[in-house]
Amino acid sequence: MKEEKTKEKKIVSLLNLAGNVFLFLIKIFIGFLTGSVALIADSLNSLSDIFSSSLALIAVKISDKKPDEGHPFGHQRIESIAGLIIGILVAVIGVETAKEGLMKLFFGNEIRFGLAALIVLAITIALKLFLAFYTKRIAEKTKSMALQAVSQDSKMDVLISITALIGVFGAVNGFPFLDPLMALVISVYIVWTGIKISLENSNLLIGKAPKKELIEEIKRKALEVEGVKGVHDVRAQHLGVLVQVEVHIELNEKLSVQQAHSIGKNVQYSLESMEEIDRAFIHLDPFKAVYFWNNEKLSGKK
After folding, report:
1. pTM above 0.70, yes or no
2. Fewest CB within 10 angstroms: 22, 31, 187, 250, which?
């Protein structure tokens, strides 16, 4: 199953890379040919997409490596690092797009061969729609943060190209200010998306806690294990897209060390069988009357 997911991640990464190279080449050529600043801005975004797709491909390969002596908990965080870099790059491209749009807005802009620009943008919208939805499906299936960032970038590109399409169409119909104006609109959305992608991935890198629903599911799974009297002090953090969790379980204080150890291992294996959980660390506490009201509330046991 893991090998199949790795293969799917590599295929979609290569597909994104090939698509972005194709789009960059036609957009930069037609952009300079027509003089469309919105189309040139869009081509610069495709250039960043080439880097993003390449980075995602590298991250996918590294993240699926087995834990080693230097990285005993695996390499999953490399995908969040890739996502963070992609987000920063997207924001930088947005700032550059804004600068170019302001220059053209104040000093004028001439559009030539508008039909060619419109055709290129239509091709871009169709291809990016396909890549966005296909990449999102694989990202959700494989829990890949790098592909999730690429998917968000592709969805952003669809809106960017639609906006550029409006700008070029307006310019060839006697409203030349629309092209650089649309470039400014594009730039705001690019920067916003870049910041959003960066924040999402930086939160995962610094150990963001998972959703409360997952914490409750962890408690329920632990309480289902025979011999567990109660659960408390559940702490979890993201290790990239996966989660590490520390759980305190309460056991009968009269159990032998071996019996207590076996129950603890059963809880560990149960939690690590969850798709979202990478590692579970179990702390054993003696069951005492002072905890009884909490235990009854959590487990329903009497």
Report:
1. no
2. 22
